[in-house]
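User: I need a structural model of BACK domain-containing protein from Urochloa decumbens for a docking pre-check later this week. Nothing fancy, just the predicted structure tokens so I can convert them on my end. Input:
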Amino acid sequence: MSFPGGDGEDAAVAGDPVVLEITDTSSSPRPPPVSVSDLSLLHPLPSPTVTVRADRRRLIESSSYFRALLGGSFSESGREHVQVGCNLEAAVQVLRYLFQPSESFTITHHNFLPLLEGALFLVVESLLVDCERWFRTMASQTCAALVPLDFIIEAWYFAQEHGVTFVQDICPEYLAQNFAHVISRRSFNKIPYDLLCSTVECPHLTVDSEKQLCEAILDWVSENMKPCEQPNPNSVDGHLFLLSKVKICLLPLEFATGTKRHWFDFGNNSVCTILNLLKDSFKTLMGAIADGNLEGYCIRITEYSKNIVLSGCPQITTAFLYISVLPTDLDVSLKRRIVSSYTQVDHRSFILYDELEKAAKTLSFRNVHMVDLSKCPNVHFGAATDWLKLAFPELRIFRALHCLAFCFDDLLYLLLRCPWIDEIDMTIDTSTIIPKQSIVSSSSEVLGKMKQNPRRYYTLCPPYDRQLNSVSSNISRLILEGRNDIDDVDLLRISVLKYSLCYINIRNCTLLTDNGISNLLLKCTKIHSMVVSYTSFGNQSIQTLCTTDLPNHNDGHAHVMAFNIQELHLGGCRGIDAAALSQLMSIINITKFLCLRETSLTDDGLCKFFGSRLEYLDVSETVVSMVSLAPVIRRNCNLNCLKTAGCHSLLFEHNEVEHISGNKYGDFLQEIGSTGFLEDVEMGWGFCPIQIENLISSFSKIRRMTVGLGTTLAENVLCALPMICPFLESLTLRFQVISDRVVRNLLESARNLQVLCLHYCLGNLTSFSFQEKAPALRILRLQWVTPWITNDDLTILTKSCNLVELSLSGCKLLDSNSQEIISSGWPNLALLHLEDCGQVTVEGVSSILNCKALEDILLRHTGRGIGRSIVDDAIRELPLLRRLALDLCDACEEGYDSPSNVMEGRMMRSLRMSRCKTMRGSCLELPREGSSKPVHRDTIVLEWNSTRLTTTIVKERV
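Assistant: Understood. Predicted structure tokens for BACK domain-containing protein:
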């Protein structure tokens, strides 16, 4: 068979034919020649030899190699049969390129390297140009999913071996601009050292955060430091070089502290750098400007960036934001002015904004769609909003979780300045005080020490409503969870979003009334998803949802707002009576997420729900039974979350509701098994006894499981959980009978287990339980189940798992040395709860304060040794601290001093101080010597929001 010529005719007709014998070994037998049209059918190639008849003239015109071989003075030039020794696949691909119609031949990552090798060997200039054009085009695409990482690595090795400079130049650029995607690939750790170095040095390096880059480098270094037969000569210096490229000043504090566990020197240096920045970032930045080294403090933002995540970086100030979007050639004096203006506490100089805006001094990054400034207490959000407007004209999502400084006025200003944003999340911790608690007294005061930060938008406040109404806002998702500084008036102002708002989360916004929520719903009729748990949402709001006279709706049930509800969370809304809830249940038939925890829901109400699209259902702590629940499960085959903990009536019959036929328990499990999609389950009363065979099909996809009072899982079932639930990530057991065998098997076999909580469980656990390695475990809560734990057991535990949350209760054998074991073993702890744990704090809390990433601390009955200044010390030493709970029984100096200055650059949300016996005089005094056994009588709760400090005395321990 022969190759067609340029005019489409057979080569034998179009020109002088030549037979090419392409082989890797000259002694191989010669197969009959084939035509080029049949080359694509040869799979696999008849290695090591292929014989092809081709047009001599086309070969000479297209290839310098054939020009010299067939048209020169070599003896082969006149022969009709010529031998060519080269890579067989490469030669075949080149011939296909030369002789097949161009429209039927494309370059892909599958044939690129053979084509390139063939083009180099046969010197086909046009193919070399096409290969380079294709490779550059491929590299210009910002979606790494289009090209396998293995291909990039192979191309790099090939380019190094053959000296292909354009590939050597493009590979690092491609990896750099797609780095955030590349690091998730399994073959990331196979990237050669020199390629990785070139990538991290590339100015186009694109990551969501500095943490993402550092984590990737540490993973790569850990994998490539493993013992091997031939040690890498670059191992030591190379690893240090890679880590030196990380801007440690931009790492989240929790992550930096965590690196101390395996990379102590690097982690310790990172933590010290971050803490030093917290003390005086102004001096540091001004020094960097003087030294011409400001780049080391600039956030990585490139033209390819999509997300900017600075969450957990308390060292970040507004100055860091602005210097990161300035041109590198900007005048030094202007840089000094910017750093000076946006670092000072009072933020008085905003004249710079006009200068930057008018002179277009800042860079614009249109690909950035998400910015996360959560847990960044030193950012001034008025100035940050101006930064967002200047630099990110296509921003869609803005997150500022746990930032008390991000107040309602900042939200309004953000709506004015950046109306194109689609989602805003300003969640803070929910209030410690819940309505059912008995409050002895409560008082609040405006935070007088908070400076009235003069922002640009203050001048806009009087005509604010008119200005907001003139803005076409795109906000569809607004999350205000925990914001007890927002009232009905503020909620009414939010109704300016009536044309766009679809999702609102006001969970635990305790100042809002049912009337205020109802008024919002009357105006924002496009809302289809609501999280209103633990608010005053009540009958009036339900009547608004179920009303029939809303405007702009003309078809069928569409005029009823509740008919369009897709997500509804009413947990803890005790202002709803059973009749109103039943009315609502009869309408919300397209709902996918439904939470009715701790409401007045009854069987009669649940039976009125006929929806079939549920994916999430929570009826915990209600009086429903399986009579009404089983039909709901049967209709909703896509249900993946089912929570029924605390449903004491789950197995009871109710005469007013016709129950399902047969055995209710058996039918119920059968209904669960028929779904096949459950990933999250909370079960209590009504699930006992349970056989393994009944769970295997039902729970095979479970990731999160909570088993509480009312259900007893047998030991064989608990031991089989890793087999029953191979994807299990979180397990909480309350009031279960457990053993060493159960715990060890969980840690050994549940390889994805990240959360293990054991509360009030019975059984004969010993120190043998936790000696098994559990590298994935991050959260461990042992409440009154391990009284035998000693310091030696803690030491073993630190070597077995890398925790970020630890909660221990009833571990009376622990002493003051336990602190050092905990702080050195888990330096990145974010939560530490110790209750009735021996004498842990008898000598103070100095080692606990060495866990610089702590956000939540509870110390109760842990030893009388805590000093008066504990509150100020904790706030000063722990930049991320949000919650602190103490017991006056542990005070060594007759009580604790009240905090002096919390709000400025801090994240403190709540302080709880429990008292075992009320005393005359100061509320912070200790009970006198000789008093009876401590009995908790009340708790002093201090809570901060963006504007006020509230002090409450609750008649119980909270």
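Before docking, keep this in mind: The chain is about 35% helix and 15% strand.
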